[in-house]
Amino acid sequence: MNDGPILIAGATASGKSALALALAEKLNGCIINADSMQVYDTLHVLTARPSREDMRRARHALYGHVAVAAPYSVGQWQADAVADIAAAQERGQRPILVGGTGLYFKSLVAGLAEIPDIPADVRNSVRARGETQDLTALYAVLQQVDAELAARLPATDKQRILRGLEVFEATGAPLSEWQKQVQSPPVSDYCGILLMPDRDWLYQRCDARFEAMLENGALDEVGELWALNLPPDANALKALGVSDLMALLKGEIDRDTAVAQAQQATRRYAKRQMTWFRNQMSDWKSYSEQDYENNFDKIFSFISK
Q1: Closest Cα partner for 187 from 252, 249, 110?
Q2: Does residue 176 contact residue 143 with C-beta atoms inside 8 Å?
Q3: CA distance 277 to 196
Q4: Contact 243, 64 (CB under 8 A)
Q5: Which sign does the torsion angle of CA 104, 110, 116, 122 carry?
Q6: Residue 192 and residue 7: Cα distance in Å, rounded?
Q7: Least enclosed by CB within 10 Å: which of 27, 43, 213, 304?
Q8: Which is it for the CA torsion 28, 21, 237, 141, positive or negative?
Q9: Domain residues of the chain, as ranges?
């Protein structure tokens, strides 16, 4: 049996965490998080992190290890994941990486551009411009200094527009050029599994899970997040449901509206994930049955080859 890492990707609510846990118990595995929101410490319920009971059943890594106020990049995750893969293998455990953040997986199997660190003064200056200047004007500047990157971005993608500007300002070279200088992938011997269930079934799961999150304390978590007075561009604030529940707490919308908006945003996000995975991971083994139990024997047989 190949003992390389098992990589399980899928849209939110597709059942990938349950599959990872079942495989970890059968294979003496260590589950390593590959979801960009589950890395944060405050949002346990709202990001659907594994329960305490699940974490007792198998070793887990990279869940809730980053403070919500701290920045955390794909490169940082890649370094952490590579270290945890090595640690698991040294313990004689099978690394099982599971999540819905496609760029995390791509950084492992396709490599990552080595972009120099951006000095704090440059980053702060560009972010300040992002707060005071019109986004249309900033996008126009990006078109001048990095037309290739600008062509790939919608004019409303503030985070990536500012990223392009700060890289150019710090290095004198367009981000699109840095992105072409890709390092060798840190993981080459792996087993890639993609869960692609029926869309209607997935959407029903998304809706039901958000209702369950509310019953289990998601609103309290968002209250804790609000109390931290995070900067508006903090990554943790982008977690599904945060903006809607924050508006509910502020009295701007009622509960039914908050739930409907969060559920709709989750369904749309799941659709984007599935499109991305279909386009970017066409060589991974894909399973379309809804429940992981229907796939387990086939998946285990595939892994065992």
Answers
A1: 110
A2: no
A3: 9
A4: no
A5: negative
A6: 5
A7: 304
A8: positive
A9: 6-112+183-304, 120-178
Rg value, the chain, Cα: 20
Question: Does residue 210 carry a pLDDT above 90?
Answer: yes
Residue 69: Cβ-neighbour burial (10 angstroms; 0-12, 13-18, 19+): middle
CA distances from 127 to 9, 147, 161, 229, 273 (A): 32, 20, 10, 17, 28
Mean pLDDT of the chain: 93
Instruction: Give CA–CA dist 155/164, Å, rounded.
Output: 12
Topology of domain 120-178, CATH: Histone, subunit A (1.10.20)
Structural fold of domain 6-112+183-304 = Rossmann fold (3.40.50)
Say which residue, 302 or 85, is predicted with more confidence.
85
* Residue 301 pLDDT level (bands cut at 50, 70, 90): confident
| Cα–Cα distance, 107 to 67 (Å, whole number) | 22
Using one digit for the tens of pLDDT, what is the confidence trace for 233-279?
788 999 999 999 999 999 999 999 999 999 999 999 999 999 999 99
Q: Residue 260 and residue 244: Cα distance in Å, rounded?
A: 9
End-to-end CA distance of the chain: 6
CA distance 158 to 238: 13
Residue with token string 């004689």: 92
Helix, strand, coil share (%) of the chain residues, nearest 5: 55, 10, 35
Q: Which residues pair with 6 in a beta bridge?
A: 96, 191
Max intra-chain CA distance, the chain: 57
Tokens matching residue 82: 């590579």
Asked if residue 5 lies in contact with residue 188, where contact means CB atoms within 8 angstroms, the answer is no
Side-chain-side CA neighbours of residue 111 (13 Å): 11
